[in-house]
Amino acid sequence: MTDNAEARPNRRMVARFIEAQGRDAPLMFWALVVGAAAGLVGASFRASVTGMDNLRGHFDSGDLGFGAPSPWQAALLSALAVMGAVWLVRRFAPEAGGSGVQEVEGALDGLRPMRWQRILPVKFVAGLLSLGSGLLMGREGPTIQMGAALGRMLSETFGLRPEHAHVLLAAGGGAGLTAAFNAPLAGMLFVIEEMRPQFHYNALSVQAVLIACATSDIVVRGVLGGTLILPMPDLEAPPLEALWIFPLFGALLGLIGYAFNGLLLGAVDRMARTSELQRLLLAGSVGGIIGWLSMTLPNAVGGGEALIERALTGGIPTLFLLALFLGRFVLTVASYGTGAPGGIFAPMLALGTLFGLWFGQISHGWIPALLDHPEVYTVAAMGALFSATVRAPITGIILAMELTGGYALLLPIVLTCIPATLVAHSLGGMPIYTLLLDRVLRDEKTETAGRLILYDTSPGEAGGGGQETVARLAERLNLEWVRLDIQGDPELEARYGSRLPVVEFDGVEICSGELSERGLEEGIKRVAAGTGAKESIAPRSA
């Protein structure tokens, strides 16, 4: 009897263990699959971007047999690449523009779709075009969104439970960040810290994210190698009496991060108010400037990894460091404002390096005994500018160390990142991805409710036409639309016959006569925003 009584708790424990494994093991398995897939896609994307950079370098140096191009030829090539990237995004997957992190957060909250069938090819190809053009954007934005899309793809393909699908979406995003930088711990922390309002946090989901990130890192290292992304010389930790300067340095970076967010969002908003043609032309103009600079001032363009290496070797004079920082600051904002796919982490790391090295050299000149190695400020600035902008200081701290191997500099990095975050927060700033998601949701409310109706005549009749314009707009905004031929309907002929074609949205006439996408879109926004009663919105010609 005693032996049976003692065995019963053991059997219950074994039964609970088996039950837990049956419930939890499938999620761990799919996290492993998502991590491997994100690692493969991320490694492929990184290798493709490197190939594009090498091809562009051979083109710029005239090694392709065409002779050395002029700056204007390089400008034209970059302009066409950026315009191609923006056109692909706007035509097939508007949610693939920019970083894509805000779209992942929106999908986690159930507020945004994750159309993986479109996002995966568009983000990959358009991302190659935008990064290959020399825009100041990073590869981590595409890899994060593609990783999340892979998580959604597997969930839908194999009919996984909704709670598992949610976790795999987040795990794919973390694995994508890992694939971009060989930084598995930063990938996991980014999900937990940055996506904390949307992520369903529990012990099981955290384990799944960690498995996905670790698997992604193993795959990427197996394909591309395991070297540090931004190797630094071995730097000793600063003495205790020198630590007081890092909080002051962090506060200054908090001001810069706050300004960066405001200017970046302003650039995105201004681009959103343009027509499709204007958007393409403006994007091409930015690309042209980038291409011209690639021939005349190559350090001013690109994601910034090569620039960081050169700056750390002392190849850039102190005064030019500040000028280069200011120039890249403006160009980073302009690059993201085009709407082309690309992340902001990499260019922020370059900005942090330039400003940190400038600050370190200046402070070393004023107080030579403070620090022997001004390069310490560069690692601290990388994490602090990220923290002030994204508002994820733990991720910023870990990312700076994983990228550079500067684990001995943990304390100065912490003392810089915390004030940077606090200053940006105290100024009333919001995390950049929260701002971008709010803007996407705001635009969604004014762009996707209701149905378009095109009143028209048969092709070839007077006044007929406009179908292609309405069809393009409806596909871009994800709207339902129908065409109604008014011939044979006396009431409709009397109402619309002299003004064809006529377009209604949600029962309100928004445009007539010569149709344009811009005119139709403005009309849709007026109706959806409720700027007046239906009868008060007068017909207008585009």
Based on CA atoms alone, the radius of gyration comes out at 27 Å
Q: Can you give the helix content as a percent range?
A: 55-70%
Class derived from helix and strand content: mainly alpha
Q: How many strands, what sense, and barrel or not for the largest sheet?
A: 4 strands, mixed
The average pLDDT value, as a whole number, equals 86
- Record field, number of beta strands: 4
Task: Please mark out the parts with pLDDT under 50 across 5 or more consecutive residues, or reply none.
Answer: 460-464, 531-542
Main sheet strand line-up = 2-1-3-4
How is this fold's topology laid out?
Elements: H1 2-61, H2 71-92, H3 101-108, H4 116-132, H5 140-157, H6 162-181, H7 184-194, H8 203-224, H9 245-272, H10 276-296, H11 305-312, H12 318-337, H13 345-366, H14 376-390, H15 393-404, H16 410-426, H17 432-445, E1 451-456, H18 467-477, E2 480-485, H19 490-496, E3 502-505, E4 508-512, H20 517-528
Parallel strand pairs: 1-2
Antiparallel strand pairs: 1-3, 3-4
Task: Please characterize this protein's 3D structure.
- The protein has helices at 2-61, 71-92, 101-108, 116-132, 140-157, 162-181, 184-194, 203-224, 245-272, 276-296, 305-312, 318-337, 345-366, 376-390, 393-404, 410-426, 432-445, 467-477, 490-496, 517-528, and strands at residues 451-456, 480-485, 502-505, 508-512.
- By secondary structure, it is mainly α.
- A four-stranded mixed sheet has the order 2-1-3-4, with helices on one face.
- β1, α18 (467-477) and β2 (480-485) form a beta-alpha-beta unit.
- The longest helix is centred in the N-terminal third of the chain and has 60 residues, at 2-61.
- It is globular and about 90 Å long.
- Residues 460-464 and 531-542 have low confidence and may be disordered.
